[in-house]
């Protein structure tokens, strides 16, 4: 297979539309959750409720991923994505100006968030249609970098909007971004029919297809290979703030981690041929874990930043799995398959942060980070049979 280039990817109008609307979505959501957290804290003075408000937008991924994902294949993708942006805009305006009590604000975010995995799945499933072959893998790489960049930009912009216009103004800004994204999607994407058909109720069909996907050993292995190394990474990153003890120092290390991820995605996506990219999946998954073990030596901020950047460059291991995943799932349930992939990843990262956080209470943050790194190495070794491409496994005389 011939490798694609970034120029070829961005030459496709539909991808430019998906890319721009995705950046608006991620940046807007970062502003929304920050503004909602500040608004709840201003009203209640409760740090716990403020933290709950910040996380409320991500919790529905568990429920939506389990019960609603079949909608991503049963409905036209453009209509789903536009609906998602309209729901976000209306939700933000209600949060900003409806004068809802705190419990109603949190309930509104949770209920509307149940459909977020469906909207994400529709977008992800359209990408192979827009970018065939290796261009799809490169497109995923570009969106991964855009996601990290948009989160950072969204948080920075959110802080500025909060200072100037307060939480309500920041929420209104997110509503405006969502409205712009809806117009961009509606005007820029052509109509595509639904990928699948409704053979049962949405919940029943979602459960049935999830079981079908997880029962397929090859698909299950690729899902686990995408989830488990990132569970260990999330656990390690969750301990950076308590390890350094200062928000400013932790910010430097986490920014270095984001930079390492972007550099790895760019280098592997741009300069590695498709076959090499797949052969690199296993060593890069190991690289994702090894540097965190170095925190057992108690590095200062500078070395901690270097270790974090080197480790997160290994996240590009996922690029070598993308083509195989698309080819392994039936086209009529591709939306649900991508939704299951992202929902499991979100859930796993939350679980990893919680588990390593609990461990950090017992043995200290630095030791917990090192344990997370060691666990990541063991996970990569256990998944070697999936991470290594079939041709490489068949050529190994030890197998």
Describe the structure.
With 399 residues, the chain is an all-alpha fold. It has two domains: 1-204, Growth Hormone, Chain: A (Up-down Bundle); 216-387, Growth Hormone, Chain: A, CATH 1.20.1250. The chain is built from 22 helices and no strands. It has helices at 6-10, 13-44, 47-55, 60-67, 71-74, 77-97, 102-113, 116-130, 134-188, 202-215, 217-238, 240-244, 247-271, 274-279, 281-287, 290-293, 301-313, 319-328, 334-363, 365-382, 384-387, 390-394. The longest helix is centred in the middle third of the chain and has 55 residues, at 134-188. The chain is globular and about 50 Å long. The two termini are 26 Å apart. The model has no long low-confidence stretch (mean pLDDT 87).
What's a concise summary of this model?
It is built from 22 helices and no strands. The protein is mostly helical and 399 residues long. Helix 6 packs across helix 9 (134-188).
């Amino acid at each position: 297979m011939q490798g694609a280039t970034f120029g070829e990817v961005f030459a496709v109008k539909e991808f430019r539309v998906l890319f721009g609307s995705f950046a608006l979505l991620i940046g807007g959501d970062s502003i929304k959750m920050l503004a909602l957290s500040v608004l709840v804290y201003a009203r209640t003075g409760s740090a716990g409720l403020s933290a709950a408000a910040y996380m409320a937008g991500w919790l529905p991924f568990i429920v939506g991923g389990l019960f609603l994902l079949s909608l991503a294949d049963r409905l036209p993708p453009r209509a789903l994505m536009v609906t998602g942006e309209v729901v976000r805009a209306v939700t933000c305006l209600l949060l900003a100006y409806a004068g809802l009590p705190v419990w109603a604000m949190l309930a509104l975010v949770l209920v509307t968030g149940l459909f977020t995995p469906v909207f994400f799945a529709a977008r992800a499933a359209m990408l192979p249609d827009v970018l065939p072959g290796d261009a799809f893998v490169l497109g995923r790489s570009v969106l991964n970098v855009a996601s990290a960049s948009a989160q950072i930009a969204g948080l920075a912009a959110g802080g500025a909007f909060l200072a100037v216009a307060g939480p309500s103004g920041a929420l209104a800004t997110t509503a405006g971004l969502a409205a712009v994204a809806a117009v961009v999607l509606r005007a820029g994407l052509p109509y595509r029919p639904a990928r699948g058909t409704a053979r049962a109720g949405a919940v029943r069909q979602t459960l049935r297809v999830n079981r079908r996907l997880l029962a397929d050993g090859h698909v299950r292995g690729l899902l686990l290979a995408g989830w488990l190394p990132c569970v260990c990474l999330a656990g390690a990153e969750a301990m950076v703030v308590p390890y350094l003890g200062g928000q400013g120092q932790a910010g430097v290390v986490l920014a270095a981690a984001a930079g390492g991820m972007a550099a790895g995605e760019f280098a592997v996506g741009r300069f590695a041929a498709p076959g090499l990219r797949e052969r690199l999946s296993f060593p890069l998954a190991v690289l994702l874990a090894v540097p965190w073990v170095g925190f057992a030596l108690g590095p200062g901020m500078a070395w901690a930043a270097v270790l974090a950047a080197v480790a997160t460059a290994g996240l590009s291991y996922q690029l070598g799995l993308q083509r195989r995943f698309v080819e392994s799932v039936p086209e009529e349930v591709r939306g649900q398959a991508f939704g299951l992939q992202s929902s499991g990843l979100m859930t796993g990262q939350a679980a990893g942060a919680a588990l390593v956080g609990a461990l950090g209470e017992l043995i200290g943050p630095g030791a917990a980070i090192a344990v997370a790194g060691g666990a990541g190495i063991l996970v990569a070794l256990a998944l070697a049979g999936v991470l290594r491409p079939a041709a490489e496994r068949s050529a190994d005389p030890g197998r």
